[in-house]
Design goal:
It is built from 13 helices and 18 strands. It is α/β, with parallel strands linked by helices. The chain binds aspartic acid (ASP) and magnesium ion.
Length: about 475
Amino acid sequence: MIVMKFGGTSTQDAQAIGNVVRIIRSHVMSKPIVVISAIAQATNMLEKIGKLASEKNDREAREVSTQLFNRHYAIVDQLIRHISRNRTLRNVLETTKEEIDAIIKGITILRELTPRTLDALFSYGELLSSRIVTVALQDQGIDSEWIDTKDFMITDENFSRAMPLMEEIEDRLRSIAQPLIVKGIVPVTQGFIGVTSTGRRTTMGRESSDFSAAIIGVALDADDIQIWTDVDGVLTADPTVVENPKKIKQLSFEEAYELSYFGAKVLHPSTMLPAIEKSIPIHIYNSRKPQSKGTLVSIQLKSHETIVKSVAYKRNVIILNVQPKKRFGQYIFWEHIHNVLTKYNVIGLITVTSEYSYSVVLDAKNFNPAVVHDLSEIGMINLIENMGIVSIIGSNLIPANQIIDKLFKAVGDIGISMITFGASKSNLSFIVDDDDVTEAVQKIHDEFFEEIYNDEVFAELDSH
Ligand code: ASP
Ligand code: MG
């Protein structure tokens, strides 16, 4: 069996969903289970609804909710002509709208939007889109059944960044989905959302539907995890930054992880973690070009060749540098720093240390000033803001002599504030001023990818 996950742009309107139905039909023989994201922008709109309500602006919150439902009604009416199916879906929309209005009222009264409430609100996006896709499949004569993540996607209680409890999920999913798949029925379920063991809806972090697909794939021992999105696959660089990016045909799990962790948007980094355990291949396909071959993420091919595959970047990061106020043992100093980072759930993107100096690169978006407060008890702090990470990702980057030569030649006089290399064979990252990120990416991309030198690894974008 296989997992087929469709992102928000693949379900954004009736035409897109019609296309999804055709793609699923062409894979029915492979026994798919289908994982659906909320329609494009729905999650953002739900977030906006929650925020507006918490600011006591319930009128505007209801307006955004009406806009969101109008889009869903339009999809249902254009897509589902069969009268009773259309009516069933309209009824679902109606009751959901009432539930959301009640939540808006609750948030407005309490003036408080907790992660738990926001997760409850978020869940409606995926619940609706997955229901619509199920009925659209039935409408086209494909035997399919809607299954609710509430019955199997058990997570811990960390609302907004819940972690799946794999054993529980495996047991439940096997008893719920397996019998359907065996009978040739296509189960359709939701990405992104989970449920605590006491039945509260959770979410696993923004953009985590890819992760949901991998969890489901691993739980059911899938042969393939397919991520259907709106680009041709994983590219050698962001197409909005470089002029002529190529498609990468194959990446190792490690390369794909590093690439998504350091900024490539096509896959959620956590997707690779369950898949790697059972070596289940992940394919990334373009739902607008279903014939195109996409990118395959799988175990490392046994080659010792050094291949630079992609240049990624992450903007708006902060370098936090700590030096101890007095000389305690080095391990005490480090332990203290790690304790503070753990206390505030801060993820260090990159860490560089020397004997008595510790620098960690943090995402400015979730920066918490309390970290600086706590660390200044033991250390002198230097914060360098408005920085960006540029990363080169590929296979067997060590030994790196050639790459480093080319890299320095490419970046020319752009100032590099930090460089990390060696912990992973697949990644070389360095920090530049945020304003220099675009130029650095373009120059490095030109240097490494000016001509396709390896058509086993790369392909031109419009190839089919
Ligand atoms: N709908 C969720 C989001 O927009 C999850 C996803 O699409 O992966 O973050
Ligand atoms: Mg996505």
